[in-house]
Amino acid sequence: MDKTQNNKAWFLVLPVLLLVAFSAVLPLMTVVNYAFNDTFGQNEFFWEGLGWFEDMVSSERLHDALGRQILFSGIILAIQVPLGIFIALNMPKKGFWSSLVLILMALPLLIPFNVVGTIWQIFGRVDIGLLGHTLAAMGVDYNYTNDALDAWITLVVMDVWHWTSLVALLCYAGLQSIPQAYYQAAKIDQATRWSIFRYIELPKMKGVLLIAVLLRFMDSFMIYTEPFVLTGGGPGNSTTFLSIDLAKMATGQFDLGPAAAFSLMYFCVILLISWVFYTVMTNLDREENR
Amino acid sequence: MQSRSSAVVMTIYLLFLLIPIYWLINMSLKTNTEITSTFSLWPQTFTLQNYVTILTDPSWYMGYVNSLIYVTLNVVISLTVALPAAYAFSRYNFMGDKHLFFWLLTNRMAPPAVFALPFFQLYSSVGLFDTHIAIALAHCLFNVPLAVWILEGFMRGVPKEIDETAYIDGYSFPKFFVKIFMPLIASGIGVAAFFCFMFSWVELLLSRTLATVNAKSIAATMTRTVSASGMDWGVLAAAGVLTIVPGALVIYFVRNYIAKGFALGRV
Amino acid sequence: MSRITLSNLAHSYLANPKGDDDFALKEMDHVWDDGGAYALLGASGCGKTTLLNIISGLVRPSQGRVLFGDRDVTDAATTERNIAQVFQFPVVYDTMTVRENLAFPLRNRGMDAGYIAKRVNQIAQMIGMEDILSKKARGLTADAKQKISLGRGMVREDVNAILFDEPLTVIDPHMKWELRTQLKSLHREFGHTMIYVTHDQTEALTFADKVVVMHEGRVVQMGTPEELFETPAHTFVGYFIGSPGMNLLDAEISGSEARLQGVSVELGAVYGPTSGRTQIGIRPEYVTVSDEGLPVTVKRVEDVGRHRIVRAELGGQPLNAILPEGMAVPGDNARVAFAPAKINVYANDWRVAPSDIGRGA
Fold first, then answer.
1. Which of B49, B145, B231, C136 is most buried as measured by Cβ atoms within 10 A of its Cβ?
2. Looking at CA atoms only, how far is residue C84 from chain A in angstroms?
3. Is the ipTM, as predicted for this complex, more than 0.85?
4. What is the pTM of this model?
5. Are residues B84 and B102 located together in one domain of the fold?
6. Which domain holds residue B68?
7. pLDDT in tens, B210-228
8. Mean pLDDT taken over chain C
């Protein structure tokens, strides 16, 4: 759509600006303040320069958390995106079943994160959980509180359980926008199932798929509550992701300086990746509208 | 055709989604003795005691009330500020619009953990700590950008001629916006509200950091269920089930918009 | 290429149709010749798309058979029927180039690469796209995309029929004319059986050898454009074809004479006794405004360029006449005359054939 040049539009954006300034810029300033200073309370600050950043960059603990974080996000994307597309392709297109499936699929998305953690905490326990009990009965040595690998598997399965529906629903929305005529034409052209997917469905899903990947990447990169409830970052530090480590540092140990420096770097990494995604997406938009 | 294999795939997937939820419901209807002593697929001694505990104890049920209050506040605030902004982004070019839009989106990407502590200090210093409005404002951090983004997508779909016709017919901007424009994007507003509700309702970290007593959310309440006699699994499960209810209700009401909603007005 | 036979065909979207009204398509028996160009013409909702979908195999008829040549294809899937179809909105594969789009139906059938390249070039030349064969289809205009769809429909030489479902809806008016002309010449060149669905009479009349007019789920007439114009079999055809449509006036018929509001009008033939609502139909083109004849009240005169349309009333019933260029505009109280040979007689909306001379009353 052609837009008119009108700088008065700023007035319409002003409320958002003020609100976000209050809830984002001010806190961010505080973080910056902490990041470059040391404090012993009472609002006394000592200039620390890049000290905290140097500490953090060379911190073994942070490297490990970052490594775990990237591995986790990678696994999550590798499972959820193909699985989400696959589920979307199999969802009923209309009628009663379609509504029912939609409602049931959206259900996990509206469960508070900590309750998701709780559900799987209970579900996976060997003594009282269906999953843990069944596995134990089958002779599998499964215990997510002691075994790092089991904890990881449980976390991944939990995240797949929690979020695959989001990817699937986004893809489904993309699929719904394909006019029936395309499928009829494909039939007449004797296209194979794969061709239909490759040339009709995938191009239509590309936009929403990018959004899905973006959202899933961001949210898995920031994951906090579910592992916090499920494993508390353990056993050992095996499931301590960036956010958990950060929260530990900031609210647990009150290491404000390092935590703030850490926060800023964390934020910058995410910002950089978002920017790449955003650029790709808008370029794509432009190409489509050409 | 493909329908039979699709039905199988969907059945397996839905079972995968529903069994953990079933297990939670199952446990919420059992006594603690049963939970810890025997293993059963359905309650042997059926009890509603866990729910009674929650619904009669203010420290429990006030958690729900508090959560609902700040979620509602958040939805209202988010939509009120997002609507005009989304309109501006969808209709006008103005100085710095692209950068502003991107900057807004980055806030959606900010890890709440980064903001938890600064929020705590900021709201403490202005005397908002432990109030509903504090949490509602904090959640605006990620909900406002999202709402602007969703609404902008829907508004782009409304032809600009409608605006022009309304102005020619003598409508003032506010009157046009409320009387004509908003009904046109009603489904978009619904979708935005749904997403704001969703993200505010499920968030734990900020709501836990910003409230201790008066505005304590149900999510935060649930993180402390260790009583003297050990874990109170039954009550914990019942509390979990009750947190699913509002979400399920919301989904039920927007069920006809879900598919369209997840397209976020972008397809 | 083959003859299409619709035998005893009817369709209802309901599982248990009760009355006639439940049928989207009422029982019909037709044979469509091999290599003919047919147009299915009718207002929206008349069942023409249902009929097209039955022929293409997207809808299975609730009764009757569909035959391609001698082969019964009623239960055959779309893919087995070997047809091509062009849809109302352009269906192109966005991520492919124009060349890949045109080659797609051939490639899926495992044709040999040399043949495909030759055939694609041939088609591209016909639709005037040989310059942009390597361009992605995504960036093209709706016109160009629809041309690709047409090209894809045309690319296979061995199809039984090519179906067009209002293919020019999204096309600019001046391009419509060009594409229609192209279609017509393609038909002449290749001799495919073509079935063209439209609600636009100009499109139907210029494209088709035979026009099939549908009304409320029924084929009311199948004939050449001339037949539709001169002897509409049903009042709907009279009304739907022509601009403005045929004038229909309540009358009583006796022999070679019709009585209209007490005034007698001469008919070109002798008719037997009629029953039900009886009307005479006369095209505005055959109504002359003159000093003698039936008195009418002129309501208004519209100038449409090459001629003028006189909107008048005859005893409370609307009557239109075409006034050739150069004729004087009549005053409020004018008189009209009908060309007797051009009057058709209708009983309960269906045309009554003149009886043989001597059998009349």
1. B145
2. 6
3. no
4. 0.78
5. yes
6. 57-262
7. 887 777 877 777 766 554 4
8. 85
